[in-house]
Amino acid sequence: MFIGKANELSRRAFLQRSGQVAAMGAASSYALGLAGLGEAAAFSAGNDYKALVCVFLYGGNDHNSMLIPFDAANYARYAAIRGGTAELGGGLTPPRADLAATALALPQGQVLTNDLTYALAPAMPRLKALYDARLMAPVLNAGPLLAPMTRQQYDSQSVPRPPKLFSHNDQQSTWQAYSPEGATVGIGGRMGDLCMSTNSNALFTCMSATGNTVFLSGQRALSYQISSSGAIAVNGVKNGVNGSRAAGDALRTLLTQTNPHVLAADHVAVAKRSIEAEAFVTAALQPVNLATSFTPASGSNGLASQLRVVARVIAARQALGVRRQVFMVSIGGFDTHDAQVVNHTRLMGQLDFALDAFYRATVEMGVADKVTTFTASDFGRTLAQNGDGSDHGWGAHHLVLGGAVNGGRFFGTAPAIALNTPDQVGSGRLLPTISVDQHMATLGKWFGVAASEMAMIAPNIGRFATPDLGFLKPPA
């Protein structure tokens, strides 16, 4: 185990922010051993483990085609708006008969707006089974808000709107970091800042299987990147340069030799620790052998491959020296302005397979109630058609799953199936009734963030009456 020095951490953060870590092809600095810094006062003592896994759906998931009205009255309204005919479907609407197998029964006592009942997309039977087993819950109409807002306040601009709505890059960043493109500190990284001193090896607190992401960048916590096959090596050092082992050894010497200049010395330390980290992670993952299959019967599934390596890291948690971790994986292709029926159906099938496989892996590892997985996306999409697709929206429905989830029910307020109602701002673009702050505060509370620290991970939470949405069971 390689233990770093706590007083080097801020300089590592500087190097990451300036891009020098990425330039050398390594994941991030090997900044370890942070006990005593006091970030984790809210996290319980002992050897318990918890992980949050963010599944980001890049492009703006059409939640209207993921959770589809199933009761006859609301299905008819939905079909009329989305180009369907009665119960036969058409346009963006699947036939109502195709939804029967994925219809989600409401628990006793729960009634949604206008007596709505929902079905998942027909390509999502596995998540339907998880809902029935009370392991998955939909969170309705969540999105960025600075404060609660009505349609009248939106129109009059009497309450500030989140900046740069409907823009892909900006809203991806806002969902991940509360600020438009250019933000440097993300929500997962803020959680990492708080919990990293509970981990013997703090570098592995925030881990990305999807490349560089602001979600996992903290003030102190750094994102360690892994590939679907495991640790990312400094290729020239590990495999040689142009086939030459001697040249690879020379490169290693150049990258790690002592240098009196402070920034150069920092770069050397980063390079050395990145090289050491790759070997350390590779050794930790080598004995992990999961029986759960992440390989679909046909085709490929990149999201499943990412979640497989996350599962392997979780299985190696003791060897890696971690008790709290935040992960991010992603799948793209959700900007469905056209060919939506074909493309979105394919994406829903991939999401269904990958999330189910990952949950089954957590059961295999005995940590199903210690790992919570949740979806996020740029924004939702319009209920109205846009050719054979849909346009950029705002609020959206999301899914949360795991053994700690209060599943088998819906959280939040279901929107009306209409294009001109107070819960949307035109063309069926939903005005969020749940803020990203509330969503993240609920996750953070379960993860171990104290009420006194909640504003660190959800800066607008004080403006909302319900900081805990209730979709997770209270911490043990």
* Adjacency order of strands in the biggest sheet: 8-7-6-9-1-10-11-5-12
User: What's the total number of strands?
Assistant: 12
Mean pLDDT, all residues: 86
**What is the CATH third-level topology name?**
Alkaline Phosphatase, subunit A
Biggest pleated-sheet summary: 9 strands, mixed
- Domain count: 1
Compute the gyration radius: what is it? 23 Å
First-last Cα distance: 30 Å
Structure explained in plain terms:
- This protein has 476 residues and is an alpha/beta fold.
- It has one domain (50-234, 296-463): Alkaline Phosphatase, subunit A, CATH 3.40.720.
- It is built from 15 helices and twelve strands.
- A nine-stranded mixed sheet has the order 8-7-6-9-1-10-11-5-12, sandwiched between helices. The chain has a three-stranded antiparallel sheet with strand order 2-4-3.
What is the compact description of this entry?
This protein is an alpha/beta fold and 476 residues long. The protein has helices spanning 9-18, 20-23, 72-81, 125-132, 151-156, 168-177, 187-195, 235-239, 245-256, 262-285, 302-315, 317-320, 340-365, 436-447, 454-457; strands spanning 50-57, 67-69, 103-104, 118-120, 136-143, 206-208, 223-227, 230-231, 324-331, 371-377, 396-401, 434-435.
